[in-house]
Each structure stands twice: as C-alpha cells, then as structure tokens.
C-alpha cells in the first residue's frame, strides 16, 4: 500500500461523507496535504469557470487531484479541473485551486468552502478569488474584468451560509464583520496595475452577487439585481469569502464578465455555460497577465 493510501486509511473514514468539518478534521486534511508537497504556500488562488489556465504559469509544480484529498468535494462542472496546484507564481509560493466546488452541485456550504479553511490551516493568510460572472451593469461589456469591491449574499437571504452552525472560535468569531471584506489596498493595487498595463479601459470595480443556481437568472431577477446596485452576478465566491474573512484572511476578488444577462422579456438570446467558457478562453491571457503582475507586487 502506498504511503498515501495508508495515511488515508488512518484518517477518520467518515470524513468523506461529512457535511461540516471540525477544527480537528481540517487540521488532519491540511497536514495530509502538506505531507505530500514540498511547497509552503503563502497565497491561495481560486480559479473560476474556465480560468484555470493560470496554473500553466506555475513553476516547480506539484499537483494533487481533489479526489485524493479526504473530505474534498470533487469537481463536477466543465471548466473546473479539480486539482490543487502548488508552486511558484511570479516567484511567490502559491497554491491554486484549479476548479472550485459550488452549492448547486449538491455540496453543503461548509463542504463547498472546506478548501478555504484548509488553506488557512496550511499557513495561507491571503486569498485571491476569481470567477466567471454575468454582467448586470448595463455599461459592462463581455470580456471586462471587475475588481470586486463588495458582495451581496443573496443565497444567504435564503439561509445558505457556510458560517451557520456551531461556531468554533479557533476558526473565528461568531459574528464576523463583512463591511471590509475586499481589502482596499489590494483593490487599489489591482486597479493601478491594470492602468499601468494599459488594461484600464476594460478593468472596472463593482459589486458581485451570488445566487445558488444552477439555473441562470430570470429577466425580472436580473432587473432586480440591477436596481439594487449589483454589477455582476454568479453562483460562487461569496461562501469562500465569508469563510476566509471569518478566519482572518485578507481577500481580493476579480470577476470576468463572461456574458451579458438577459434584461428584456422578449429577447431571443439565452445565457449558457458554453459562452461563459468561451469568454474565459478569449480573455485568459489578459487575466493571467494581470494576475501575475498583481502577485508579483503583493506583499505576503
Ligand atoms: O463562479 P464560477 O465558478 O467561476 O462559475 C460561474 O460560471 C458557471 C455558470 O456558467 C457557474 O458555476 C458560475 O458560478
Ligand atoms: O449570467 C450569469 N449568471 C449567473 N452566474 C453566471 N456565471 C457566469 N455567467 C453567469
């Protein structure tokens, strides 16, 4: 039996079927991962739908598929490979999540965000999140990149929140503040970097919202989001950010506007995941360049 299989066997075998995870579970998972890699990452990056190509730029790569990590949800969505990629990006030690879990895949909010607490337990204090999102702001174009300045947890309005349940203070406080979730210095760094790179015209700053999905929004839902000041909408990210802020991480987020949402009742177009992936493909080089520059400049 390989060392890895033996380790897995020693772990609580029920860990894979759990809906929520104790501090000790997360400790076990983090040490299982660190036993398998040499890298000691200081920055975590979650890659959104179709945005996992950033991993191609990682040097000294060490890769672990989620299926080999106890408790980790496996990726079921096209455009999410389901791998942890460790190594160097712009000379910094990082771990990239090449693919994320979503609540709409049927995972509990706690399982969806397990990787974030695991990263924290591995010694990571800064988290970059990216996603594909529909453009709600009528001035946005497909292919724009939006630095996230705030979010609306619409899923939370319906009780979907990974912080629900018994609170273990070793993770963080019962009532975490969320008014400064997206770090101001990192937002400024990203916007200035975008300007320097000549990306100013298509890099914006705005508000992201999350509904659980998996269906795309109705016309009236999109009009509602527009009226309450949302610029882009998706089906992810918010649970990850809630958990990251709860455990004291510094967070930066970017959305790629992959499609315009449908705001007219008689429109013939419909939103679809193929368009989301195609836009990701088309803009991936720009996004990779911007991300590597930001990683280069960030102090960890
Ligand atoms: O948020 P990410 O994972 O980037 O993906 C977005 O794209 C998918 C829909 O096309 C959904 O998963 C939505 O959340
Ligand atoms: O239009 C959208 N709506 C919700 N999620 C999305 N993810 C990419 N595009 C969209």
TrEMBL record:
UniProt-recorded Gene Ontology molecular function terms: purine-nucleoside phosphorylase activity
Family matches, as Gene3D superfamilies: Nucleoside phosphorylase domain
GO cellular component: a single term: cytoplasm
One GO term (biological process): nucleoside metabolic process
EC identifiers of the protein: 2.4.2.1
PANTHER family reported for this sequence: METHYLTHIOADENOSINE/PURINE NUCLEOSIDE PHOSPHORYLASE, PURINE NUCLEOSIDE PHOSPHORYLASE-RELATED
Entry similarity comment: Belongs to the PNP/MTAP phosphorylase family.
Protein's name in the database: Purine nucleoside phosphorylase
Species of origin: Candidula unifasciata
């Amino acid at each position: 039996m390989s060392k890895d299989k033996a380790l897995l066997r020693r772990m609580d075998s029920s860990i894979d079927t759990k809906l929520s995870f104790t501090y000790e579970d997360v400790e076990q998972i983090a040490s299982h991962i660190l036993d398998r890699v040499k890298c000691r990452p200081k920055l975590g990056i979650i890659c959104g739908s179709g945005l996992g190509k950033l991993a191609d730029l990682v040097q000294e790569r060490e890769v672990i598929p989620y299926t080999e990590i106890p408790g980790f949800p496996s990726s079921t969505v096209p455009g999410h490979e389901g791998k942890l990629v460790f190594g160097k990006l712009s000379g910094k030690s990082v771990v990239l999540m090449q693919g994320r879990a979503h609540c709409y895949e049927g995972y509990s909010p706690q399982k969806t965000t397990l990787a974030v607490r695991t990263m924290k337990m591995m010694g990571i204090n800064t988290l970059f999140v990216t996603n594909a999102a529909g453009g709600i702001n009528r001035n946005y174009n497909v292919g724009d990149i939006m630095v996230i300045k705030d979010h609306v947890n619409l899923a939370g309005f319906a009780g979907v929140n990974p912080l629900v349940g018994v609170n273990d203070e070793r993770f963080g406080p019962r009532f975490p503040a969320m008014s400064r979730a997206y770090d101001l210095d990192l937002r400024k760094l990203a916007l200035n970097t975008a300007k320097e790179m000549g990306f100013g015209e298509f890099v914006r700053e705005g508000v992201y919202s999350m509904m659980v999905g998996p269906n795309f929004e109705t016309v009236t839902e999109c009009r509602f989001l527009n009226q309450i000041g949302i610029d882009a909408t998706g089906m992810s990210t918010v649970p990850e950010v809630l958990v990251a802020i709860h455990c004291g991480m510094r967070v930066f987020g970017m959305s790629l506007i992959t499609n315009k949402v449908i705001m007219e009742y008689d429109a013939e177009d419909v939103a679809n995941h193929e368009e989301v992936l195609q836009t990701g493909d088309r803009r991936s080089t720009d996004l990779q360049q911007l991300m590597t520059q930001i990683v280069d400049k960030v102090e960890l």
